[in-house]
Each structure stands twice: as structure tokens, then as C-alpha cells.
Design a protein that fits this description.
Distance between the termini: 36 Å
Shape: globular
Number of strands: 15
Structural class: alpha/beta
Length: about 600
RNA sequence: GGUUCGGUAGCUCAGCUGGAUAGAGCAUCAGCCUUCUAAGCUGAGGGCCAUUGGUUCGAAUCCAAUCCGAAUCACCA
């Protein structure tokens, strides 16, 4: 049980006895005491004044005094300032934590809770390479999945590959028109980039044709609609749907180019999935559900044959679920896939990591499932994350303002190489070790950068300024870890050695933070927010660095002190590593 | 226009289930390597928390209005 909840329990129990009326743990707040005051944790008294009919000083005095006498094993002292009761926790509490947990590989993790969760993330289109926005999605999804695992859930990572539709046909048409049979191999291009180039070419040609149409006297709408290349694309989509062999073959070939490119990127950034769904397999799902919905009266058919759902009562519009020609729209397949996931994996919760531009769509999806009375409906949760923007605004693939994922990773690795070489601390590393280190640091900086902010908020990335390696960054935490490991290589810890019984303030600070690990994890899991972990791990590293700069471990004042600090170092390194791993970041032994 | 989200230091972000003098990092300035890795540590400056009103013992936080910005509202995915 965490120290905070122990204080809450003790306080509510004491108050209930003292004032002969029930107090529960929500009646008051327990915060960490601010640095400028004496104490470890603070009870805010204001909210208790009315119920106890006391002034802050008197209440604080009574409460503090009683707590001290009733729980002598927990509290060492108290003081009252304004409406705040500052409590000092006994050193023994922190020392006990250190003694029993410093070496516990499962420290901070929550017990298994039997719940099953699916996290769908990444979900790329197969017509262009991944960009910075996808990186945020991938890191978020992966990290959230790991955080949930650590908090006791059984987690399944899934990915829906959007491998069919007009967007792919655009790349295919452009390839037919302009490639002259070129392939990724023949041009030495990574497959996803290769296909992406033809997507760009499509748009160039399309624009050109619109201009020509306008010059020929067409109005804007007609020029857009009647452009031959667009017509060809639509024809190709129809050919795909009826399975015309030549189209299917080209489609498969080009998709495979993209997949081989994606594989390389996923491998590098460490994304993995337990289950991959392909839209080409799932796009027909959901049609029977629509049929059932019609029978139930959840949906209605319009005169032209199209099927709709009326969501105006929920503040939304009417939404189409089946076209007049009977083909399904995006939301139809989503309903089908939601059902399939539920049936295949028996999941208690289904999380979708999708950008906030699709808030409306996801709201509709959940509403439809609810109206259909689907058992999984209430467990659909949209983890809606903000877009990554440039200082100039939104990234737009058509305008070429996207930050390419592969290029950015390359850049990060090159930057970490540069920094490492300048510092010259690992000159004895083999080439392979160096390559691993550069990747560890470069990716660490990038993942930390993208995960340290609240997922819900949009964020700004300035390509002109490279991602930092100092301060609130991945490498800062990695460095702290490496430095601890360096000490531990030189000073082996003796497991049974006695340790010092008193704690210096800088030593205690670290333990106070270490103690909070599980609470932070639980909060991060509940809020699906990896930034909680990033902030935590940074604070822990900072606290250790402050300690490190003042107190020596190897040359500690006494042998007992040295043993205590070695344990402190071991435990800190363990939690730093675990926390960083939850973010998908590796911590090096040396750097 | 409807709906939703956002506006905190020069920049990037915490804090937002109301509580002590609004916090970090970067950048700027001043110190600290004969000592376990200086990718580090210590300190300084920097704020009408968009604006106005309200609720409260107490508001960056809750409510209302206004201003500014973004997303979304397709027989696209």
C-alpha cells in the first residue's frame, strides 16, 4: 500500500474517532509537501473545517498530535502552516522500502487483473511512407500497450492496414502511366518511398489535368470530376472490386513493395503487433450487421436504397452505413471489425489509437454499436491524440511539408553519433556496439520527445531545431542510468551487508520518488498517458543526479553508508530502466 | 453556421477532480571537472496563466460571455 493511501487511511480513521462522524478518504487531500516546508506529505485542512467546526490551527494540532501517537511507526513529526498539516514520515519507512525492494525485478508493477484489452494503433495507408505523425501514433500505441501490461492487463496489439481503396489506386495508376516498369529494386528505393513517389506523381498530374480542363472551358467542379486520371482511378477501383486479375496483380505487387518498406521501419522503431488485419479482408464485414440493424429498426432505408442511421437525437447528423449500390462505407467495416475483434479475442476493452481528426467518426462508431445493442459497444475507447504540427501549421503530404519518418530516424542517429564522438567517452567500443549505441540514443531522444507531452494535445515540431539531448530528454535519463551502471561495475554490492540507519535529505528524496512508481504507473494506465511515465522518470533521474553531485558512493563516509547508497543506485537504475522500457526506450550500460 | 478541442516564461511543455510564493526543459547570464562518466550539478533573470465578469475563505484550475487558433460536420478512407 502506498504511503499516500496509508496516510489517507490513518487520517480518516483518526478523524472519524475524534469527531464522531464518518470521514472517508475523499474528504481531504494528501499532497507531497512543497520543498520550502518541513515534512514529506501534507494534509490540506481547509475542506475539513466545516465538518469539524474547528479553525485550521486547532484541527491541525489535534489531528497531528493524535496521528503521531496512534501511528508511531509511520509518523516522526508534524507542523502546521496556515491550513496545511505537514507530516514527517519516519526514516524507517523509507529504509524498509529500500531494504526489501531494491533488488525486486517486479518492483512497482501491478498484479494481474484478468482483464483483456486490445490496442489498435499504427494503421497505415499503403500508398505512402510513414511520417512524423505516424511515429507519434506508433510510439503512443506501443507504450500504452506496455503500460497496460505493467498495470496487470492482458494486452493484444493490433493493426489494421488500409490496403485498398482509391488512395492505393492513385499510386497504381500513376505507376502505370509514368514508371516504365521501374521497381524499388531497379531504382534502389525503399519500397514504401517508391510507391509514395507515384502517389505524389498522381497528384501532380491530376492538378495539371484540372488546369487543362479549366482552360478548355469547364467549370471547376466538372474539371475536377472529369479529369481523365481520376476517371481511370475510379475505373481501377471498380476493377479491383470485381477482382480483375491484372489489377489484382499490380495491387499485390505494389502493396508488397510498401510492406517490405514498412517492415524495415517498424523493425527500426520497435513497433510490433500480435494481430494484423487487412482492410481488403475486412471491408465486406459489417454488411450482415447492417441487415440486422434494419430489421431491428436501428437503421432505415431511403428511397434510393441507401441505408442510414439517424443520430440527430444525439446531436449528430444522419449517417450513411450502406451505399445505394449496396457497397459498404468506412464505418460499416469498422462495425464489422469491432465485432470480429470482440469475438476473436474476448476483450473487455478495445482501444483505438487514432488522431483527433477522427473524433466525430469514432463517436459515430460507438453510438451505432450502442444502438445495435452490441455487447462490446461501451468498451470502445478512442485514444484521440493531437496532430504533430510544424511551426507553419499542419503537415500536408500533398504540399511536401511532411517530415518523413525514415529521414528523421536517420537524422536522430546521426546526431547522437555526433554528440557521442564529441564527448569521446566510448572510444573502446567495437563498431557494432557503437552503431547500437547511436541507435539507442537517437531513438531514445525521439521517442521521449514525442511521448513526454500529453497525447491529447497537439504538439509543435520544429525541423529547424534538432531534438535535444540535454535536459528533459531521453538521453538525460539514459545518461543517469549509464552513470549508475558504471559505478556498479566497479563497486559490487554485498547483499547481506548492513546498511546505514539514517537518511540524508538527498537520499530520502530519491526514495520518496521511487515509492511513487506504482501510483504513477496506475495513473498512466488509467489515463492512457505515457507522458506521466516520462515526467516521472525524468524527475527520478534529476533527483539522483542532484544526490550524485554532492555525495560520493564509492567514497562514502562509512561502509554502511556505501552499502545504503549502492542499494539506492541499484533501485534507481532498475526503475529508470523499467520506466524507460514502458516508453519503448532502451537504456544503455555505457554511453 | 453547428459540434468538439485548445490559448500558461522568448520557444517547447507541466500544473486544470479548486489550496502554500504558478513549475520544468531549451535559450540567455553567472559559477562548478586533481574527486564514482560535466549528455551532469548549483544559482540568476524572465509571467496581467487570452480578455471581462461571476461562484468561493481561496480560481491558471469551476461557470458565463467575448476575442484568437485548430479539428470536424462527404454515397473519401
Amino acid at each position: 500500500m502506498s504511503i499516500v493511501s496509508q496516510i489517507q487511511k490513518a487520517t480518516s480513521k483518526t478523524l472519524t474517532l475524534l469527531y464522531q462522524q464518518p470521514f472517508n478518504e475523499n474528504d481531504f487531500q494528501v499532497n507531497q509537501t512543497k520543498e520550502e516546508f518541513v515534512g514529506d506529505y501534507t494534509v490540506v485542512l481547509f475542506s475539513l473545517l466545516k465538518k469539524t467546526n474547528q479553525n485550521p490551527a486547532a484541527l491541525g494540532e489535534t489531528l497531528g498530535n493524535t496521528l503521531l501517537h496512534k501511528f508511531p511507526e509511520l509518523f516522526a513529526g508534524y507542523n502546521i502552516i496556515k491550513g496545511f498539516l505537514n507530516l514527517e514520515i519516519k526514516d524507517d519507512y523509507w529504509l524498509q522500502l529500500l531494504k526489501t525492494q531494491y533488488n525486486n525485478v517486479c518492483y512497482g508493477l501491478s498484479p494481474k487483473n484478468g482483464q483483456r484489452i486490445m490496442v489498435e494503433y499504427s494503421s497505415p495507408n499503403t500508398n505512402k511512407p510513414l511520417h512524423l505523425g505516424h511515429l507519434r501514433n506508433n510510439f503512443l500505441g506501443w507504450s500504452v500497450a506496455e503500460i497496460l501490461k505493467a498495470d496487470g492487463y492482458e494486452v493484444f496489439k493490433s493493426c489494421i492496414v488500409n490496403d485498398r481503396g482509391v488512395h492505393i489506386c492513385k499510386s497504381m495508376i500513376a505507376w502505370q502511366l509514368f514508371a516504365n516498369g521501374a521497381t524499388p529494386e531497379s531504382t534502389g528505393t525503399k519500397g514504401d518511398h517508391f510507391v509514395g513517389e507515384y502517389y505524389v506523381k498522381f497528384n501532380e498530374e491530376y492538378k495539371k489535368q484540372i488546369k487543362e480542363g479549366l482552360a478548355a472551358g469547364l467549370d471547376e467542379k466538372t474539371a475536377e470530376k472529369e479529369a481523365p486520371i481520376l476517371k481511370a482511378t475510379q475505373q481501377m477501383l471498380q476493377d479491383w472490386e470485381v477482382g480483375k486479375p491484372a489489377v489484382m496483380q499490380l495491387w499485390e505487387t505494389m502493396n508488397n513493395w510498401v510492406y517490405s518498406g514498412f517492415d524495415v521501419t517498424y523493425q527500426r522503431i520497435g513497433s510490433d503487433f500480435d494481430k494484423t488485419y487487412y482492410e481488403s479482408n475486412t471491408y465486406l464485414l459489417g454488411k450482415d450487421i447492417v441487415q440486422q440493424g434494419l430489421e431491428k429498426g436501428v437503421f432505415f432505408r431511403k428511397e434510393d436504397g441507401s441505408v442510414w442511421i439517424d443520430l440527430t437525437a444525439n446531436g449528430l447528423d444522419e449517417k450513411i452505413v450502406l451505399r445505394k449500390d449496396g457497397t459498404s462505407v468506412y464505418i460499416t467495416q469498422d462495425i464489422g471489425l469491432a465485432q470480429q475483434k470482440y469475438q476473436e479475442y474476448k476483450i473487455d476493452q478495445s482501444i483505438y489509437v487514432i488522431g483527433d481528426e477522427q473524433n466525430y467518426h469514432m463517436k459515430v462508431l460507438k453510438l451505432i454499436a450502442q444502438k445495435l445493442g452490441e455487447p462490446y459497444a461501451d468498451n470502445i475507447f478512442h485514444l484521440s491524440y493531437g496532430m504533430v504540427e510544424l511551426p507553419s501549421g499542419k503537415m500536408k503530404s500533398r504540399e511536401g511539408t511532411v517530415v518523413d519518418a525514415d529521414e528523421l530516424v536517420d537524422e536522430m542517429i546521426a546526431t547522437s553519433k555526433k554528440h557521442t564522438e564529441e564527448l569521446g567517452k566510448v572510444k573502446d567500443f567495437e563498431e557494432e556496439e557503437l552503431a547500437t549505441l547511436y541507435k539507442t540514443l537517437g531513438l531514445g531522444a525521439m521517442k521521449f520527445y514525442l511521448l513526454r507531452v500529453d497525447p491529447k494535445k497537439k504538439m509543435v515540431f520544429n525541423p529547424e531545431e534538432s531534438i535535444d539531448f540535454h535536459g528533459f530528454t531521453g538521453p538525460f535519463v539514459q545518461y543517469t542510468h549509464a552513470r549508475i551502471k558504471s559505478i556498479l561495475r566497479k563497486e559490487p554490492l554485498e547483499n547481506d551487508a548492513p546498511i546505514s540507519a539514517d537518511l540524508l535529505p538527498l537520499e530520502k528524496n530519491i526514495l520518496v520518488i521511487l515509492e511513487q512508481f506504482n501510483q504513477v504507473l496506475v495513473k498512466a494506465a488509467k489515463e492512457l498517458n505515457p507522458s506521466e511515465i516520462a515526467i516521472y522518470v525524468f524527475n527520478l533521474a534529476k533527483s539522483f543526479n542532484s544526490f550524485y553531485s554532492v555525495h560520493s558512493i564509492t567514497n562514502a563516509e562509512t561502509i554502511e553508508k556505501k552499502q545504503l547508497r549502492l542499494r539506492l543506485a541499484v533501485m534507481t537504475a532498475g526503475v529508470l530502466k523499467k520506466g524507460m522500457n514502458l516508453l519503448g526506450i532502451v537504456v544503455p550500460e555505457r554511453m
